């Protein structure tokens, strides 16, 4: 049997270093359309979201500070669409998949 304290969310000081951030990441692994500032679109995967940014997986790297838009549609026919606008803060090779992990910081988000 667990105590209520064991089930509670850990405080910031008790979390691992990687998770000492303002917002916890939510894994979603959802298909996404990434649009660059020239209007070119690429298919990718949104691995996770937080209150301040997202982590994407793409076939190619994107330059730091490039403005991008990310569209994530719900799997259901009538579900909501999430449109995220922001800029790239980091890009690195994902050695396991041969793809690139792109970290972005939000400028604004619009759900419709």
TL;DR of this structure?
Helices cover 4% and strands 54% of the residues.
Report on the architecture of this protein:
The chain is mainly beta and 112 residues long. It contains one helix and six strands; from the N terminus they run αββββββ. A six-stranded antiparallel β-barrel has the order 1-2-3-6-5-4. The termini are far apart.
Keyword list:
mainly beta, 6-stranded antiparallel barrel, 1 helix, globular, disordered N terminus
Task: Describe the protein's topology.
Elements: H1 4-7, E1 26-36, E2 41-49, E3 53-58, E4 67-73, E5 81-94, E6 99-111
Antiparallel strand pairs: 1-2, 1-4, 2-3, 3-6, 4-5, 5-6
- Give the N-to-C terminal Cα separation: 43 Å
Describe the main β-sheet briefly: 6 strands, antiparallel, barrel
Assembly category: single chain
What structural class do the secondary elements suggest?
Answer: mainly beta
Output the radius of gyration.
16 Å
Broad shape: globular
- Portion of residues within helices: under 10%
């Amino acid at each position: 049997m667990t105590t209520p304290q064991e089930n509670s969310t850990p405080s910031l000081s008790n979390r691992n270093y990687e998770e000492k951030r303002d917002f916890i990441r939510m894994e979603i692994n959802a298909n996404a359309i990434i649009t660059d500032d020239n209007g070119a679109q690429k298919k990718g995967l949104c691995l996770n979201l937080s209150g301040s940014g997202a982590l994407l997986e793409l076939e190619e790297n994107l330059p730091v500070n490039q403005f991008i838009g990310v569209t994530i549609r719900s799997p259901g026919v009538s579900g909501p669409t999430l449109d995220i606008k922001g800029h790239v803060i980091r890009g690195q090779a994902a050695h396991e998949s041969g793809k690139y992990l792109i970290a972005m910081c939000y400028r604004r988000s619009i759900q419709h």
